[in-house]
């Protein structure tokens, strides 16, 4: 495969004063033995879901900026994968759905009203410019990473643009359109008898579980929030069907789980799975919305608590595909994934964030850290032990690791004959799964380009509907779980209520001030009393605004509101603004204007040192022939 990478002997990118940015991890298992392939496409940060949408692809570029400025390019190979083609996507997704994604644009979306309803494209999963290209980049990186793992070209492959675990065979869901994870696992199954999929996103990995719900070739294991929470699946009793019975592992969690509690269930469960299932490759979805302070999350993991999962899985020494996923507080997403990139490469990163083009986003402390907050952990020891015992019992029922003799690779029916040709670009494209052909990168990385910078609810159990195929998820709207945006909507409603209370309180203060003004005309000192009441209200509101900037008890310490342009102000800020306006009007001045900060506009900062020029290496290993497979 023709590929571009940054050589490991290049000069350090941006060392900080007083020490190196990289140190070998002395406590890591075989710290320097892992060969790491890292996939990044500089175009990924150019796509935008729309104003106010919490999913921001810019976070991938922010993470990459940290990776490069920490000098991690010296410890791994960096690739730009060939974007996935329509034919490759159709290995799992229906042709009709893939064709819709390829054709729909914001300009012609009104002519696809029926298709939008059919494919669940709308508010959560909007149509935006470059939608298909965005999906192609995400899927291409995961498939190429899986291919290099299968051909023993690396020990760990990383694609932070992947991990979109909610996408279904013919339906978008939870900000996800194309399920790159399923496509990557299908690639691994061409060479590996058994693949383990682990999901540490705060949301259940429903799309991946559904895809492999009836096979024992893939075991899925998801640790997630369960209850009145998107997507509403992932109950403990959802264990698979047919040959796949007991090969779906779900560990439902409650709000506020801490590093200690998470570790107490993650490590024993994964150890038991490794012992019983004996996978030959692992895919780890590292959704960072399980971190403390995430906009849509409700867990309380620190950066190191989250990264402990990566380190523990890495310690088994199996081919490992690391993928991204959810994560909606951008500075924390990029911190966590950069740290875990260093961990994969056996490097401990300096706690001080290096200068980079997003440097101001990491203030005020500019530390590579995500700290837990003081939210209550509702996961009691008794609850976790009860779930763990049941999970272990389900694993024991699987017996020994399944043999693959006579088994075929899981396949998904296509809507048209396999002999049909795709459109022009697909017809001539190199296919990763084709026989006796090399894996070829059509897009070569340009020099210095890499420096650019997701308790049962009212809907009841959904495993039969989603995974058994007896009813479409679109046919029972009432049974659907809450929207993935529900936590954000709830917070906005709460802010609106607080703002209304503040407005009422401010109105009372204003009335008191007016009363003092009237009395002052009678008594000779009313101006002082009236303005004093208004000033006191302004001071109180300003104090509240200051507390809000510091972050409340559930905000993780230093949370700011710079990531969502449509983020409404807090009640305290609103009250302060109103009080200021009233005071200025009394003084004959003009009211102040609200400033709207667009998170996707990069702040100015000292430009980072450019990375060393990329050079091209030719990979002459051809892919083995694929065996014939039929649909299970």
UniProtKB/TrEMBL annotation:
<feature type="compositionally biased region" description="Pro residues">
    <location>
        <begin position="604"/>
        <end position="614"/>
    </location>
</feature>
<dbReference type="InterPro" id="IPR003084">
    <property type="entry name" value="HDAC_I/II"/>
</dbReference>
<feature type="compositionally biased region" description="Basic and acidic residues">
    <location>
        <begin position="540"/>
        <end position="550"/>
    </location>
</feature>
<dbReference type="GO" id="GO:0032221">
    <property type="term" value="C:Rpd3S complex"/>
</dbReference>
<feature type="compositionally biased region" description="Acidic residues">
    <location>
        <begin position="416"/>
        <end position="428"/>
    </location>
</feature>
<dbReference type="InterPro" id="IPR023801">
    <property type="entry name" value="His_deacetylse_dom"/>
</dbReference>
<feature type="compositionally biased region" description="Low complexity">
    <location>
        <begin position="570"/>
        <end position="587"/>
    </location>
</feature>
<keyword id="KW-0678">Repressor</keyword>
<comment type="similarity">
    <text>Belongs to the histone deacetylase family. HD Type 1 subfamily.</text>
</comment>
<feature type="domain" description="Histone deacetylase">
    <location>
        <begin position="53"/>
        <end position="341"/>
    </location>
</feature>
<keyword id="KW-0539">Nucleus</keyword>
<keyword id="KW-0156">Chromatin regulator</keyword>
<dbReference type="InterPro" id="IPR023696">
    <property type="entry name" value="Ureohydrolase_dom_sf"/>
</dbReference>
<feature type="compositionally biased region" description="Gly residues">
    <location>
        <begin position="510"/>
        <end position="531"/>
    </location>
</feature>
<dbReference type="InterPro" id="IPR037138">
    <property type="entry name" value="His_deacetylse_dom_sf"/>
</dbReference>
<dbReference type="GO" id="GO:0070210">
    <property type="term" value="C:Rpd3L-Expanded complex"/>
</dbReference>
<feature type="region of interest" description="Disordered">
    <location>
        <begin position="397"/>
        <end position="632"/>
    </location>
</feature>
<feature type="compositionally biased region" description="Basic and acidic residues">
    <location>
        <begin position="458"/>
        <end position="481"/>
    </location>
</feature>
<keyword id="KW-0804">Transcription</keyword>
<dbReference type="GO" id="GO:0141221">
    <property type="term" value="F:histone deacetylase activity, hydrolytic mechanism"/>
</dbReference>
<feature type="compositionally biased region" description="Polar residues">
    <location>
        <begin position="1"/>
        <end position="13"/>
    </location>
</feature>
<feature type="compositionally biased region" description="Basic and acidic residues">
    <location>
        <begin position="557"/>
        <end position="566"/>
    </location>
</feature>
<dbReference type="InterPro" id="IPR000286">
    <property type="entry name" value="HDACs"/>
</dbReference>
<keyword id="KW-0378">Hydrolase</keyword>
<keyword id="KW-0805">Transcription regulation</keyword>
<protein>
    <recommendedName>
        <fullName>histone deacetylase</fullName>
        <ecNumber>3.5.1.98</ecNumber>
    </recommendedName>
</protein>
<dbReference type="Pfam" id="PF00850">
    <property type="entry name" value="Hist_deacetyl"/>
</dbReference>
<feature type="compositionally biased region" description="Basic and acidic residues">
    <location>
        <begin position="429"/>
        <end position="449"/>
    </location>
</feature>
<dbReference type="GO" id="GO:0031507">
    <property type="term" value="P:heterochromatin formation"/>
</dbReference>
<feature type="region of interest" description="Disordered">
    <location>
        <begin position="1"/>
        <end position="29"/>
    </location>
</feature>
<feature type="compositionally biased region" description="Basic and acidic residues">
    <location>
        <begin position="490"/>
        <end position="503"/>
    </location>
</feature>
<feature type="compositionally biased region" description="Low complexity">
    <location>
        <begin position="615"/>
        <end position="632"/>
    </location>
</feature>
């Amino acid at each position: 495969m023709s590929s571009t990478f940054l050589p490991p002997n290049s000069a350090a990118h941006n060392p900080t004063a007083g020490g190196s940015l990289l140190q070998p991890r002395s406590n890591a298992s075989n710290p320097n033995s892992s060969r790491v392939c890292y996939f990044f496409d500089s175009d990924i940060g150019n796509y935008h879901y729309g104003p106010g949408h919490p999913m921001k692809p810019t976070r991938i570029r922010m993470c990459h900026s940290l990776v490069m400025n920490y000098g991690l390019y010296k410890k791994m190979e960096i690739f730009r994968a060939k974007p996935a083609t329509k034919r490759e996507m159709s290995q799992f997704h229906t042709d009709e759905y893939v064709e819709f994604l390829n054709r729909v644009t914001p300009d012609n979306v009104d002519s696809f009203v029926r298709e939008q309803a059919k494919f669940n494209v709308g508010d959560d999963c909007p149509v935006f410019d470059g939608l298909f290209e965005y999906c192609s980049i995400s899927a291409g990186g995961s498939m190429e990473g899986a291919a290099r793992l299968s051909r023993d070209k690396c020990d760990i492959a990383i694609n932070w643009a992947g991990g979109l675990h909610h996408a279904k065979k013919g339906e978008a869901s939870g900000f996800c359109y194309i399920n790159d994870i399923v496509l990557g696992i299908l690639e691994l199954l061409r060479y590996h008898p058994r693949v383990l999929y682990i999901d540490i996103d705060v949301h259940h990995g429903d799309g991946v579980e559904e895809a492999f719900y009836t096979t024992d070739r893939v075991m899925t294991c998801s640790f997630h929030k369960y209850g009145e929470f998107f997507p509403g699946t992932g109950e403990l009793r959802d264990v698979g069907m047919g040959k796949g019975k007991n090969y779906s592992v779900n560990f439902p969690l409650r709000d506020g789980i801490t590093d200690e509690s998470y570790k107490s269930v993650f490590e024993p469960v994964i150890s038991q799975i490794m012992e019983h299932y004996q996978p030959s490759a692992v895919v780890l979805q590292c959704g960072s919305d399980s971190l403390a302070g995430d906009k849509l999350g409700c867990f309380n993991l620190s950066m190191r608590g989250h990264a402990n999962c990566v380190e523990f899985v890495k310690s088994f020494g199996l081919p490992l595909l690391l993928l991204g996923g959810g994560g909606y507080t951008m500075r924390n997403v990029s911190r966590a994934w950069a740290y875990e990139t260093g961990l994969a490469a056996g490097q401990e990163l300096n706690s001080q964030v290096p200068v980079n083009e997003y440097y101001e986003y990491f203030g005020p402390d500019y530390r590579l850290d995500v700290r837990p907050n003081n939210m209550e952990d509702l996961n009691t020891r008794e609850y976790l032990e009860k779930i763990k015992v049941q999970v272990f019992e389900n694993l024991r029922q699987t017996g020994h690791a399944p043999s693959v003799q006579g088994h075929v690779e899981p396949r998904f029916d296509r809507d048209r004959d396999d002999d049909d040709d795709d459109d022009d670009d697909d017809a001539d494209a190199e296919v990763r799964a084709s026989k006796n052909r090399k894996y070829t990168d059509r897009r070569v990385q340009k020099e210095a380009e890499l420096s650019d910078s997701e308790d049962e609810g009212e809907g009841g159990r959904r495993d039969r509907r989603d995974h058994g195929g007896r009813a479409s998820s679109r046919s029972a709207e009432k049974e659907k779980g809450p929207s993935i945006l529900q936590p954000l909507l709830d917070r906005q409603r709460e802010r609106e209520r607080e703002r209304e209370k503040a407005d009422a309180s401010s109105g009372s203060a204003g009335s008191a001030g007016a009363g003092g003004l009237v009395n002052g005309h009678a008594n000779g000192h009313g101006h002082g009393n009236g303005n004093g009441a208004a000033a006191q209200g302004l001071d109180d509101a300003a104090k509240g605004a200051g507390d809000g900037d510091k972050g409340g008890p559930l905000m993780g310490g230093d949370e700011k509101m710079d990531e969502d342009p449509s983020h409404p102000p807090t009640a305290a800020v609103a009250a302060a603004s109103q009080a200021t306006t009233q005071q200025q009007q009394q003084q004959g001045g003009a009211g102040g204007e609200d400033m709207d900060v667009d998170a996707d506009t990069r702040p100015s900062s000292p430009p980072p040192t450019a990375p060393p020029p990329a050079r091209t290496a030719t990979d002459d290993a051809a892919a083995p022939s694929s065996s014939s497979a039929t649909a299970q």
